[in-house]
Amino acid sequence: MADTEQPEVPSEPQSRHVTYCGVCTLPPEYCEYGGTVKKCQDWLQKAYPAMYEQIWSPEALEAATASLSVEAQKRAAKDAQKKAAQAEKAEQKQADKMANSVITIKRVERNKRKFVTAVSGLEAFGLDLKKVAKEFGKKFATGSSVTKVPSGGEEIVVQGDVSDEIEEFLLEKYKDIPEDNIELVDDKKKKASS
Amino acid sequence: MVASIQTAPKSKLKSSVQRSLRQSLLTTYPLLHRYIDEILPKKGSLEAMKLPDRCTLYVLDGEPLFFQQDTTTLLPHLKLVHRFPAAFPSIRIDRGAIRFVLSGATLMAPGLTSTGGRLPSGILTVRTEDGAGEGLDEEDRWTRELEKGEPVIVRAEGKTEACAVGFLVMGTKDVKDKGKGPVIEDAHYLGDGLWKLATD
Ligand SMILES: [Zn+2]
């Protein structure tokens, strides 16, 4: 109190909390530059209707473009169109990739009556293997880790025979994955033993 | 910043290193005095993540705070700028320049000298004991002219949040006088690799 030499340090937290777009991760006022505008708008309207109004209501848009020169407006419109087309193309590509990708859930017999379940192909659906491995571990209360496969890629290996449960879990949690794109395989021990 | 950066393991920093980082932050950004205990709590454990191009990102509890290339001046991550916007020197670009900056292009002078842009007022009116007259004035405009090489936040016409951070390759007075040429190169901007990097 008497110490006036020190700069005044506020006792209340001063950190602002900024909401970021759930789709493109930018502050929503910048979604127009992200290339996923439509999706961003849908998300914002649902999650933060007030903010949506502030940014995307006709009045707000008019106020925003009013300060742009005609030429700049044309440029912006053209640019937005190009971005949207690019985004659409990228989306289509990802959709095609997903349609042609298969997730394999393989039951592997390690020792007599001891199984592990190996899941491969998840990355084609944009999933983070480490994250999913963690989810598996939690969900099935068992060991679950990402391991390299000889062919160069990675797969998730879960302790125990949980093939059906994993399929069910994936379909439930990741709606992007069509049921037909999941393949269950039983890898019987061919070699005698080791 | 490049478009995509792989996340890397984090390592805890010794308290002596944390102390010296804190000191250099306060030297570079005097207005941080008000907030430094909130940004870097005494008991917090700051971690460092080594990124490509000899860049180091400093992270606390999964929140990105600052980064630096080699041992140059520390720059705030945009998420930190959004939390404490008044703590850093800033300039403002006009609406038309936003899309260029957000695509990683060099920021050019006309984006700042046009009507939508804003450069420091050059009038040290703000009365803060720790800032020696620098800061944001009533119109939210930074007061002190900035020298070539100084770090600066890039805000944007019509937007609340800042969109980029970088070093000036031209002093703000020169920008006003010349009205052309590059002003910030290789900025960290919204949506770049550093922005998208997972830090938790
Ligand atoms: Zn968005």
From TrEMBL, chain A:
Transmembrane segments: none annotated. Pfam families: DENR_N (PF21023), SUI1 (PF01253). Residues 103-174 form the SUI1 domain. GO terms for cellular component: cytoplasm; ribonucleoprotein complex; ribosome. It is found in: Cytoplasm. Residues 70-97 form a coiled coil. Keywords: Coiled coil, Cytoplasm, Ribonucleoprotein, Ribosomal protein. The keyword Zinc does not apply. GO terms for molecular function: mRNA binding; translation initiation factor activity. One of its GO terms (biological process) is formation of translation preinitiation complex. Belongs to the DENR family. The SUI1 domain may be involved in RNA binding. PANTHER family: DENSITY-REGULATED PROTEIN (PTHR12789:SF0), DENSITY-REGULATED PROTEIN HOMOLOG (PTHR12789). NCBIfam families: DRP1. Interacts with the 40S ribosomal subunit. This is Translation machinery-associated protein 22. It comes from Xylaria multiplex.
TrEMBL record, chain B:
Transmembrane segments: none annotated. One of its GO terms (cellular component) is cytoplasm. InterPro entries: MCT-1/Tma20, Pre-PUA, PUA, PUA-like_sf, Uncharacterised_CHP00451. PROSITE patterns: PUA. Residues 6-85 form the Pre-PUA domain. GO terms for molecular function: RNA binding. It comes from the Eukaryota. GO terms for biological process: formation of translation preinitiation complex. It is found in: Cytoplasm. Pfam families: Pre-PUA, PUA. Keywords: Cytoplasm. Residues 90-122 form the PUA domain. NCBIfam families: unchar_dom_2 (TIGR00451). Involved in translation. Belongs to the TMA20 family. PANTHER family: MALIGNANT T-CELL-AMPLIFIED SEQUENCE 1, MCT-1 PROTEIN. This is Translation machinery-associated protein 20.
